[in-house]
Amino acid sequence: MNLILIGPPGAGKGTQAKILEEIYGLKQLSTGDMLRAEIAAGTDLGKKAKAIMDAGNLVSDDIMVGMIESRIEQADCAKGVIFDGFPRTVEQAKALDAMLGKKGKPVKAVIEFVADEETLVERLKSRIAQTIAAGQEVRGDDNEETFRKRLGVYRAQTARILPYYEDKGLLKKVDGMMPIDFVSQEIKVMLK
Ligand code: AMP
Q1: What would the mean pLDDT of 161-180 be, rounded to a whole number?
Q2: Considering only CA atoms, which of 178, 164, 18 is closest in space to residue 113?
Q3: Is the CB of 187 under 6 A from ligand 1?
Q4: Which residue in 27, 37, 39, 166 is a FRET match for 46, CA 20 to 30 A apart?
């Protein structure tokens, strides 16, 4: 089973992806985490991506599609994937459909996390304060200005994917502002 989680930054996609991994034996692929791993490893791709990410913009479709295309061929993806943060543009969505179609394993559901932007900004601020209090490093794109930019990019580019999947009858919505357990329960019911 392949699932796609779509929602603005901080809406809880990553948290739910980890819960769904356990329940269904799927593999979470977070393209944000994959890019941060490239940055940490100091690769050319990581160097290129860092400036784009720190500005709150999207890395190019070619890079992202290539990254996912090779990753889903690995053995740990055989039972299915939870796409967390991919696709983020209609071009990426079309490329993913083609890839999964070729494998005969299409997307089962696309789950949209509906969230209130100002609440997300408040949550971000408390997350930053907690990270600093714990003596940990704050992500380069986790500051209010860049976060607001990321919210705008979500609205302008990523949200355009929603009608694409709605037309295919795959789109389901959850209230990302609800408690974690409640959201997981809703998703479980949707996938029955
Ligand atoms: P995330 O951790 O999913 O919020 O992603 C952090 C940043 O990585 C985003 O703001 C983008 O700059 C970049 N990124 C992650 N996934 C994608 C994608 N599918 N397409 C383009 N850029 C991406």
Answers
A1: 98
A2: 178
A3: no
A4: 27
Are 5 and 84 in contact by the 8 Å Cβ rule? The answer is yes
> Which are the contacts of 62, defined by CB distance < 8 A and separation ≥ 6?
none
For ligand 1, is residue 32 a contact (CB within 6 Å)?
yes
Residue whose CA lies nearest to ligand 1 atom number 8: 32
Asked whether 63 lines ligand 1 (CB < 6 A), one says: no
Query: Which residue puts its alpha carbon closest to atom 19 of ligand 1?
Result: 86
Q: Annotated active-site positions, please?
A: 13, 88, 127, 139, 150
Exposure letters 21-53 (e unless 16+ CB within 10 A, then b): eeeeebbbbbbbebbbebbeeeeebbebbbeeb
